[in-house]
Fold this sequence. Notes:
493 residues; 5-stranded antiparallel β-sheet; 3% helix; Methylamine Dehydrogenase, Chain H; 38 strands
Amino acid sequence: MKSVKPGFLAVALLVFLAVPPALVAQSRVALTPKFASEFGETPPPDKGLASNSVTDIRFLNGTVWVATGNGLSRTSDNGLTWESFGEKHGLGKGGVSALAVTDSIIWVATAFDTVTKDAGKLPAGGGLSYSTDGGETWVHVPQPGATPVQNVTYDIALLGHTVWITSWGGGLRKSEDRGQTWEVVTPDTFLFDPLGNLNHRAFSVIAVDSTLWVGTAKGVNRSDDGGKTWVNFNHQNQLHPISGNFVVALAHQRWNGHDRIWAATVETTSETGDTTEFRGVSWTDDNGETWQTALRGQFAHNFAFDDSVVYVCTDSGLYRSVDLGKTWYRYGEIQDASSGERFWSTEFYGAGVDAQHRLWAGGGDGLVMTADNGNTWHIFRSFVPTGRNGEVRTYAYPNPFSPARHNVLGGEGHVRFQYNTTRPTRVTLRIYDFAMQRVATVVEGKERPVPGDYSEVWNGRNEAGQVVANGVYFYRLDLEGEGSYWGKLIILD
């Protein structure tokens, strides 16, 4: 299964023709892993979910592992408590861009934004880390390739004792010694096109039994002999092809003795000139010889399965099919059954189904879980508790806030105001401009009968229903019987 952080993928889609692959001259490159002991005593995991940007979800022996934009998180009590790992624990710099979890080893790749002199901000690979003791200690491996810039590892697969990775500038690589050396493997032995070939741009990889599947900027590739020979399937070389050649995710579904390979496929019309390509999902039941397609027009990021049931994470929502892709249902508004809080985004990047058949899914506004097919939901979020340990009583996030880009739901963006109460109270929250003229009333006299941590949400519109202009705004939080608290919010589109 695969997930690509949206920002990094957007850059890749724009420039995958312009930047040559960072493939070194030697076929095997030696790196120096850094063991946790080299950094001194490893600190304990941080408390709480690492970030509200969730890109992938895996399960192992009752533990839920969550890849986020600020590190790796886990819970062993169904989300009641969370522990998180980051750079200080032995992971690489940045957010998690790829995750693989097995009984014997956990592999994590990270990525971050860096500023270059000539090209401005570009994504960079933070390397890989692995743990053989369930996350208690980590070994870090530098990003393989000539440079980490434009060389993000998007996916990881384990085939026997070999780890396979797909890296933007580094192509497809494998290591048989836990990252001490890496070998470049290019799936170009079938229909090689030296002029327009983009098959070295690898994004997704899965291992199914002894077969390796790799998604690139030129289709889906299959190897049945550990990468020695390949078959390539693209939109132009089959009668019943994938929907588009840019393959950002792959997944394997098995039910009742049947096997199906799924792919998230995006059009490359600007490069191929083929206007019949389109974005959507593609699947094959015969090892790639023929493909079927669905969800035309949807940008898919990831897949999850519960026996024959299929879930697809897309930019426009979370989809479900109970008839193997013939028809699809998109989940509507997601609201926490206990707190009443909503999931303020349509974008989903990662999903998974645990052993109890509960669906977990995440995107840019946190993590959600349902045990009853979406009738009730639980929402898990990362936030800094207010009013304790010297923290402020209220804050807004994201800040700066873009009404056009942040937490978009129903065509509107949303910003959250976090606060806490110490007694039963009523809450009023108002927004003011720089001249201290009232812009909007978010809530007025809202009952909060139980002390705790809460948040209110604003859509960035004034009382006339218009999106407010860019600038500095102030907000006032009134807690009846506790006092008034001020904060500042920057609107920046």
